[in-house]
Design goal:
With 806 residues, this protein is an alpha/beta fold. The chain folds into five domains: 3-179, Rossmann fold; 186-364, P-loop containing nucleotide triphosphate hydrolases (Rossmann fold, 3-Layer(aba) Sandwich); 464-480 and 490-538 and 585-644, no CATH class; 661-742, no CATH class; 747-805. It starts with 11 loop residues before the first helix and ends with a helix. It holds the Pfam family WHD_HA2.
Length: 806
Amino acid sequence: MDPAKLPIRQYQQQIVDSVRANAVTVVIGETGSGKTTQISQILEEAGFAEGGMIGVTQPRRVAAVTVARRVAWEKKVELGQEVGYAVRFEDRTCRRTRIKYLTDGTLLRECLDDAQLSQYSVLVLDEAHERSLNTDILFGLLKELVQRREKPLKLVVTSATLDGEKFSKYFMSCPVFHVPGRTFPVDIIHALEDHGQDYLQAAVDTTIDIHCNQSEGDILVFLTGQAEIDKAVKQLNDAVRSLPREACGDLLVLPIYAALPPEMQARVFAPAPSGVRRCIVATNIAETSVTVDGVVYVVDSGVVKQKEYNPRTGMDSLGVTPISRVQATQRAGRAGRTRPGKCFRLYTKKFFEREMPNTTAPEIQRTSLVAAVLYLKSLPLNIDVLGFDYLDAPASESLEDALRQLYVLDAIDVNGGITDKGKAMSLLPLDPSLARALLAARDLKCLEQMMTVASMLSPESSVFMGNKGPEQLAAGTDQQGQQGGRGGGGGPPISEQGRELLKELQKEGLGDHILLLRLYEAWQAAGASIDWCRDLGVDGRSMRFARDIRQQLERIIGPDGSGFESGSGRQRAERQRGSEGGEAGGSREAARRDEQPAAEGRQREGDRERGDRERDGSKRERERERERHSDSRGSKRPRRSGGFCDAATLSSLRMALTIGFANRLARRMPMHNGYRTLGESSTLAQLHPSCARVAADDDGLLPEWMVYHELVSTGRVYLSKVCPVEAQWVQAILPRLEGIDVNRLSGGKTGAKAIAAAEAQAAGLAAAADAEKQRAAAAERRNTDDAVAAARARYLARKAAGGKGR
């Protein structure tokens, strides 16, 4: 559809006038109104980019990249020039950039370098209804910034479904614009019974029914996660193949989720061949920012996979929960983008009206706040995290849990002030525990190895394919269930040589972190070979992603860690150089792709070119690998390299992990292999089956102490990604776990008041104790009847003795 005909273009003058006249404007644009792609262009055309960039935040990196690509195509400019994007570990902008799409987390990190956000004239917080943790933090920071910044900053909050009155009240009674979406109606068809337990099969059956009995138009199916989507894709393909040719036409089934490789994601946006219907099977990533043209039918399972964090136990639980009515409305709206559509809901109307929550709980109320609190403490604003102006305040338990963890990690002091270590940790786009471990590794002379471990823990999914752990793969268990690729195609199992190498890499029995280090070293020694990855059941894309992250980390902190000491100016320079290097190197190919009028088509061509280059490179690599790894019989075999780090370095690395994961320590129970976590509320857990091998003693008992990356609940409680550590290292940490005063840790006004109140209480108690001592002394001096009688007896005794003497 012509962008000029989108509904929001009819309101562009009112929006421009409101942004000029008000510090904050809320725009509620219904699905299909064009708000995500057009508001930035409307403001740029009105001249707002003359005083600084127009920044548009998105909750997900996939959305930031695809929308930036779309806007660059609409404006007929090269991506990375006038229109660009910035996401974690990737920056496609330059000095000419006027419109910048970025994740909300990336904008938060920019605040550390420039608390005034001086390079922006307007910031648009898009998809605000999703209430991501980073967006909620931005609400509070930007609300204060638009009032105090000397150079005016305009804030626009946008969403398809939003409580406009609530947001207006929060943002100083700002104006609210309601922009209608496209006028195509969507028929809502509810199921006759709820499919809460069998929604996957119901979704597959409904999709096949639509394909066989409904008129032309693509289908969008909402499911909860990668494994479920891969299973549905396979079932749909099998079902279509089993049907007679005359029963239905061809169906192109395509998955989309955050962890999908970019070249696979690009297929979703390409038009299907003539006469072929597309079926997109997606997570809730397709609810809002990622728009797939041509969708006429939506199959809504009514559920979403959501993570919940319990601050009392420090445990994450990932479960399937019902969506909210707001989400249901969003999903249905995807069917009416280009023509009248239909939404098939796999739940009853009664369930929708009576049992679904009205809105989704904000992420800030159901996730760990350690990284968010570290960020707030890092800002030069003396923020009191307990008294911060949240739109919806998190539970005090969650904030107190975050403060305790940061204190244990040495990121804040006893009075809640950020330490030098905390400032250094905040510079890295990593989990605070990994950042602390990197600091410790610098001091223990194993920084190179720790950067590798941190990078290998950063991919969104496991580096091993088929949802199996390395010990399971090495043992060759359940090979029929082993999948050879991320798409769930049921590829060949790993080779016998691959299993042998996996066993060798784990023979030290030091857990996941050491295995990941060994795996990366062996992959590098094998020339980053694709065949090597396949032999071991390793995802080559995740390995390349880890390598890219490691290069970024080394650019930020330096191979010797000197970047930790160089301040934010050094960080900014390093990031800029990294960005320019990307534009001059690998990103130039992507930039050339976007010069074509049909961006998506050219994207596919670029993907094919890259695929050809990778296949040619893979072929050459296989030839080199055969020469390196052929044995006396001439067969290829994966081998480890002699360049692995030694035992002393491994010991230092484990000690650094102990320091970095001091907030995630567990101790084995005396007579069995269950572990109890340390902290305010300890939890009994076992090692997850996907963990790497951990060596046991002669009695079969595992090491006494363990650090873990995650504590997860999936029916049972497990420690995930573990590393055994020494008792003497833990003993140095234990004192920091005791006697923590959370009120003092809060800092700011609330913390100061709490300290003053505590000091006053202590002074009052001391005064009361002195008064009690004085009363006791006075009581001892007071003459009681018994004391008088005793004194009289002593006097008469002395008198009688004196009379006898005379």
